[in-house]
Amino acid sequence: MKKILGILAVSFFMTGMIACDVIEEPYKKDNNSGSGGEPGNPETVVKHVLLEDYTGVRCVNCPSAGALAMQIQEDNDHKVIVLSVHAGDLANYPPFNLKTPEGDQWWNQFGLQQNPVGTINRKMVNGGYAFDTPSWLEAVATTLQEEALLEMSADIEYNEANRNLKVDVKSEFLAELPDTYSLTVCIMEDSIVGMQVTQQGNIPDYVHRHVFRTTMNGAWGEDINTEPIAPEQEIVKSYTTTLNEAYNADQCYIIAYVSNSNTKEVLQVIEKKIK
Hints:
17% of the residues lie in helices and 36% in strands. The protein is built from four helices and 15 strands. Strands 8, 11, 12, 14 and 15 form a five-stranded antiparallel β-sheet that branches. Helix 1 packs antiparallel against helix 2. The chain is globular.
């Protein structure tokens, strides 16, 4: 059944037939989500995949790409974490603007040229990072088969009175790794209502899903090691910020990932609701 749904999702995109005016309810998640398995058993650690959907408010084909990303996430039991990054020439629709400085940096660094386009764990393909939309399904399936090299978890403290946010991220490595790795902690807001240009026309109350808002530690995160990483090594990092007043805290999530500092490829990623 999952394969059938995936094929239907790809076909949906290729024909450009998407009911852009259908608004889905915000998706439900386990507030204790992580990559953990059974204690002491590395084979049970869950491999997660980061699918970055580079989208834009003025991109008429982007709603169908977003629907495909959500279908892939659903078909894989939320082992796929979707982050919608508004970047590129079609991303801005004044005064409604979901573009970010970090998104612009990623767009330029990865050599992306048009919306919609995606990255899959920031892997390279054909000399670049861009995965066109019809290739997402296969690329995600292949990446999910890879061995998990680390386990991640996050503890979150949020003060509703002053909107102070504290995030502790623990990474426990399962193998010896020779390179330098970085941790990036993002804030994602789901279900932002605003303008979207579609093939059927402008929709002023479109619901934007999985929207990247900002990072807590910079576009490229923070290097977490200076020497090779040993098996069972644990690294804990803590970050604090004041949540922007424009963000709906009830719909905000932390997305944290560890990546190779040089190649940018993501090794593991987790997601957790702020509240």
